[in-house]
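User: Hi! Is it possible to get a structure for several chains at once, not just one? Here's what I have:
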Amino acid sequence: MPKEVIPAEQVANAVGQIVESMYFREANYLGTAQLAGPVVAASVAFGGTVNGSFCVALSPRIARELTADFLVAEPDDISGEQAVFTVRELANIVCGTVLAAWNPTATFDFDTPRDADRTAPVESFQYAFALDGARPEMAVDISFA
Amino acid sequence: MTGMDVHIYEAGNGREATVVAASIRPHLVITDLNMPEMSGSELVSWLHADPCLKDTPVLVLSADQGKSRPRELIGAGAVAYLTKPATPEVLRRSLVAAMAGRASDGGAEFE
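Assistant: Yes, the chains can be modeled jointly so their relative placement is included. Here is the combined structure:
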């Protein structure tokens, strides 16, 4: 069975729309890249027409900033727990949006988002994004079972 | 919800939501679909089966954009199905429509 691949353009468009509509920020697609330093990551497993999982990782700084944007608060007032919740929710939304764009007629079931253990910068991510400047600080990995 | 005269009660999952709903009898429930303990669809069915809560309008707000999902949830008793990311304006309009439907007892508008 051929390995499933979701075109980078669909992932980039979905992430760009989500980040802009929820956090009023611009996500610039960089391709495959490593995220330097520690990350806050969450994964969502999906099943249905095909099975797999999404992993979304953010630098701690961007996780706090996006949370602050969403809650209309200052980044310094955001707790680690709130930032983790934001990444879980972002993984959930990215998963739903990308799968709907990739296969609009399919029905998928999503698992509850879970914290993911990703070690940076050793691993590279399939789809990396810069939210400020050119440094990758957000990334998405998609794997199919 | 800024500027709206509402009190918001939160629950961490569907199971907690049943406890909160039974306790305060809310005018409206907004729920996610994919939650630990009890899913949003189970919550909708639970609310619909409770004689005291069966008329409470439920808005489902989910990342699941599957085409058949809105029909399933509305068939189970939800009044609207919104996909994330939903803008504050869309959420506000749906909330107002759901409450108007409740007030007129004529059913809420579907999105």
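The radius of gyration of chain B is 13 Å. Chain B has one domain: 14-104.

User: Great, thank you!
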